[in-house]
Design a protein that fits this description.
By secondary structure, the chain is of the alpha/beta class. The chain folds into three domains: 3-166 and 206-309, Copper homeostasis (CutC) domain (TIM Barrel), CATH 3.20.20; 315-408, no CATH class; 433-576 and 623-669, TIM Barrel, CATH 3.20.20. It contains 21 helices and 30 strands. The strands form five sheets. The protein has an eight-stranded parallel β-barrel, surrounded by seven helices. Helix 1 runs parallel beside helix 9, helix 3 crosses helix 4 (96-105) and helix 9 (235-251) packs antiparallel against helix 10 (257-266).
Length: 678
C-alpha cells in the first residue's frame, strides 16, 4: 500500500497532517535538519510527538539530512540516540558521514536516503541498498518512465515527491545560497536565490510540483511513498494538501475540478508544473508567486477549526466480551494492526430483578468518546440471569482501551551505542600537488601539459576526443563522471570508462552513489569529487572503506575545518576558479553572452554540461594562492578550476601557481575559505 508522507514543520502542522490522513510525517529536531527555519521540535518534545502519531497509526521520520561538521558529530549521535529511544521509525540522511555514524550509534534504526543525496539511477539505488539504506527518496527530476523502471528493479522502497516547491538545482548540488550569502542549503538555511530576478525575469524560479493527476499511476507502479513538500508552510496548508492527497490515495483516483482548484488556492506560483514527470521541460515550468496572492483564510480557518476541535483520525477496533456465571468478566480488543489487549474484571453477580442484556453490554462497550478508538464490531457472550454494574463495564472498557493504547505506542527493541571518537591522524606536511580541471577541450594545450599538473580533470565525454590521445602518456587524466545523468546512460558510461582505461587514463572522479557501481569493475584510481559534499572526517573514513583513493572536500568548509579533518584519505580542495553553484536539468535561458545578471549587476556564467544540462558558475573567481594558508592544512592536492578562462589564461595561471607568482584575478573572492557557512 502506498504511503502518504506529510511535512511537520511544527507541532500544529504535525496535528494537521495526522488528523487529515497522513500515513507518516517527517520532522526535524533542533538545528540538525534541512529546514532549520521551520519551528521544528526539541528533543524533549519528540517522544510526545511520536506517541501522538503512533497511537493514531502514523509513522514518524526524523530529518537529519544535512551536512555535519566534525564538532557536530557528538550532537548528532546524541540526537540519534534520543530518536531511537523515542521510537522514531526512520531517519533521513544526506551526508555519508552521518549515515556511517548512525550505523555505529543506532544500528537497528532504518535509514532513508534523502533527495539531498542525489540518487537518480538504478545503480545509485542498488548501491544504497548494498549500504543498508531501506528507502531512497528519488531525485525530483525523474520522469514517469524512469520512476517506473526503478520501481520494477529496485531492491528497496522508493519515495517520490508529488507536491510542493521544486528546487531549480538538482537537490544536494546547490551551493548558490552558501557562496553568495553564507547560508548553506546543504545545512538547512537556503536563502532561495533561485526565486530572485535575473536578466530582467525569473529564469530560475520553478512552479510548484503537482502530480495529483498521476496518483493512481504512481500507486500502480509500486511507489512506496508519496511525499508532500512544505515544512516551512502553514499548518492549514499541510491540512489542505494532505486531506486531498489522502482521499486520492484511498480512492485510487485523480482529483476532481474542485480539488484541483483547492490545491491551487492553498498555494501555487502562478499555477503548477508536472514537467519533470511528463518529460516536458521548458518555459511553462517556470513561475513566481503573484504579488497579490493571498492565503484562503476562510477555508483555512475551517480546516483549523476541524482538526483542533475534534478527533478526525480514529482507529477502528473490534471488541469481544465474555460474561459467564462464576468467571471473571473478560474483554478482548483488537485493532487490526497486530495490536490487542485482554483484560478481566470481577465475576458478574446473579440478577436480583432484571438480567443484563447483550444489547446493554454492546452499548456500554461502544462508548469510546475521549479516545482515538471507534468500535467497528462487538461480540458479546452473555449467560442469562446475570447483572453487572455500568461502572464495572465502563471500567473494563477503559482498561482494555488503555492497554491497547499502550501496545500501540510501545517502543521497539533496538540497540543503542555511543559515539566513538575518530582516529587522531597527523596531517600531511608536504606541499599540495597542483591539479587542474577544465571545462572545454581547447583548454588542453601543449603549454598547459608541459607545466606538468599532477592531474587533469575532464568530463568523460570530452575526454573521449581523439585530439587528446597525444597527451595520455604525458600527464595523468581523471575522467569526471556526470553529476546528473540517466539510468539509460549507465551502460555507455561503463564502456567509456573501459576504453579510457585502455588508453591510459589514470583515474575516475566519483561524484555520487551511482558512480561507485559504474567504476567498481575498473582498475582506475577512484577520486572523490566535489559533488560528494565531503564535510566531516566520518565521511572520509566511509569513502576510504568504499575503496576511494582520494577525496575533494566541500568548498563550504572554512580553513580551520579543513585543517582539523582527520585525513583518512588524501584530501583535495579548490584554491582557484569559479565555484559551481548549480546544476540544472532545465537549460537556463541566459543573455547572448551566456550569463545571468542579478539585480545588483553580478554576472554568473552558465556552462553547458553533460546531456545539455546547465551549470551556473560563481560571478567571482576564488583565489587563495597569494596566501599560504591553504598550504599547511593537510591538503595533498590543490585544484585550479578552469571554466571561462581562455587556453592561454589556463596555462598562465597554472604557471603562476607553479612559480609562486601573483595572478590575482580582477573579480577575486576568497570564497568560503575564511568565512565558512552557517
Amino acid at each position: 500500500m502506498t504511503e502518504l508522507l506529510s511535512p511537520a514543520g511544527s507541532k500544529e502542522a504535525l496535528i494537521a497532517a495526522v488528523q487529515n490522513g497522513a500515513d507518516a510525517v517527517y520532522l526535524g529536531v533542533d538545528v540538525l535538519n534541512a529546514r532549520r527555519g521551520a519551528l521544528n521540535f526539541t528533543m524533549e518534545e519528540l517522544p510526545r510527538a511520536v506517541a501522538y502519531c503512533h497511537l493514531r497509526g502514523v509513522k514518524v521520520y526524523l530529518t537529519l539530512n544535512t551536512l555535519v561538521t566534525d564538532r557536530e558529530l557528538h550532537a548528532l549521535a546524541a540526537t540519534a540516540r534520543g530518536a531511537n529511544d523515542a521510537g522514531v521509525d526512520a531517519i533521513l540522511v544526506q551526508d555519508w558521514g552521518v549515515a556511517d555514524t548512525l550505523r555505529r550509534v543506532v544500528p537497528d534504526m532504518p535509514l532513508h536516503a534523502s533527495t539531498q543525496m542525489t540518487v537518480h539511477t538504478l545503480s545509485g539505488v542498488e548501491e544504497a541498498a548494498r549500504l543498508g539504506i531501506s528507502r531512497v527518496v528519488l531525485a525530483r527530476e525523474l520522469s514517469r518512465d524512469e520512476i517506473a523502471e526503478l520501481c520494477a528493479k529496485s531492491p528497496i522502497e522508493l519515495e517520490v515527491f508529488v507536491h510542493g516547491a521544486l528546487c531549480m538545482c538538482v537537490s544536494g548540488q546547490c551551493a548558490m545560497s552558501a557562496v553568495i550569502g553564507q547560508r548553506s542549503g546543504n545545512r538547512g538555511l537556503c536563502a532561495q536565490p533561485c526565486r530572485l530576478p535575473y536578466n530582467g525575469g525569473h529564469p530560475l524560479s520553478l512552479k510548484d510540483n503537482n502530480l495529483a493527476d498521476y496518483v493512481p499511476e504512481l500507486q500502480d507502479m509500486g511507489v512506496a511513498c508519496l511525499k508532500l513538500e512544505g515544512r516551512m508552510k502553514r499548518p492549514e496548508y499541510v491540512a489542505a494538501v494532505t486531506g486531498i492527497y489522502a482521499r486520492l490515495l484511498r480512492e485510487h483516483r485523480g482529483p476532481t475540478d474542485e480539488e484541483r482548484a483547492r490545491l491551487a488556492a492553498a498555494f501555487s506560483r502562478d499555477g503548477f508544473t508536472d514537467g519533470y514527470y511528463t518529460g516536458k521541460h521548458g518555459p511553462e515550468m517556470f513561475g513566481v508567486r503573484p504579488a497579490n496572492a493571498r492565503w484562503p483564510e476562510e477555508w483555512f480557518a475551517q480546516l483549523r477549526a476541524d482538526y483542533e476541535r475534534e478527533e478526525l483520525r480514529t482507529i477502528p477496533v473490534t471488541l469481544s466480551a465474555r460474561l459467564k456465571a462464576g468467571e471473571p468478566i473478560r474483554l478482548a480488543v483488537n485493532d487490526g494492526d497486530g495490536h490487542s489487549a485482554d483484560v478481566q474484571g470481577p465475576p458478574p453477580e446473579a440478577a436480583r430483578t432484571r438480567s443484563l442484556t447483550s444489547e446493554e453490554v454492546d452499548a456500554r462497550m461502544r462508548k469510546t468518546g475521549g479516545t482515538v478508538f471507534r468500535v467497528e464490531a462487538c461480540t458479546v457472550e452473555l449467560d442469562d440471569g446475570l447483572s453487572v454494574s455500568a461502572a464495572n463495564l465502563n471500567a473494563l472498557r477503559r482498561d482494555a482501551l488503555a492497554s491497547l493504547e499502550a501496545a500501540r505506542i510501545a517502543l521497539p527493541e533496538r540497540r543503542s551505542g555511543h559515539f566513538s571518537s575518530l582516529d587522531s591522524l597527523s596531517n600531511p606536511t608536504d606541499l599540495p600537488k597542483l591539479t587542474v580541471s577544465v571545462s572545454r577541450l581547447e583548454q588542453i594545450t601543449d603549454r598547459l601539459i608541459s607545466i606538468e599538473p599532477y592531474m587533469v580533470y575532464m568530463s568523460i565525454d570530452r575526454l573521449m576526443s581523439e585530439n587528446l590521445l597525444k597527451y595520455f602518456n604525458r600527464v595523468r587524466f581523471c575522467a569526471v563522471l556526470p553529476r546528473f545523468y540517466r539510468t539509460s546512460d549507465e551502460e555507455r558510461l561503463r564502456k567509456q570508462l573501459s576504453e579510457l582505461q585502455l588508453r591510459g587514463v589514470a583515474a575516475v572522479a566519483i561524484g555520487n552513489l551511482g558512480h561507485l557501481a559504474l567504476a567498481r569493475d575498473c582498475t582506475l584510481e577512484k577520486h572523490g569529487d566535489l559533488s560528494l559534499n565531503v564535510f566531516n572526517s566520518a565521511a572520509l573514513r566511509f569513502l576510504k572503506e568504499q575503496g576511494l583513493d582520494t577525496a575533494a572536500v566541500s568548498f563550504e568548509l572554512r580553513r580551520e575545518q579543513i585543517r582539523d579533518l582527520q585525513k583518512y584519505l588524501p584530501c583535495e580542495a579548490v584554491i582557484y576558479g569559479r565555484l559551481p553553484l548549480m546544476i540544472t536539468e532545465n537549460r537556463i535561458v541566459t543573455d547572448a553572452e551566456g550569463v545571468l545578471t542579478d539585480r545588483r549587476g553580478e554576472r554568473f556564467p552558465v556552462l553547458e554540461t553533460y546531456g545539455g544540462r546547465s551549470e551556473i558558475e560563481n560571478a567571482k573567481t576564488l583565489y587563495l594562492s597569494n596566501r599560504e594558508d591553504w598550504q599547511n592544512i593537510g591538503l595533498s592536492y590543490a585544484r585550479l578550476r578552469f571554466t571561462t578562462e581562455t587556453p592561454e589564461q589556463c596555462a598562465d595561471i597554472l604557471q603562476a601557481h607553479r612559480d609562486g607568482t601573483d595572478c590575482t584575478p580582477a573579480d577575486m573572492t576568497r570564497g568560503l575559505f575564511y568565512r565558512g557557512v552557517e
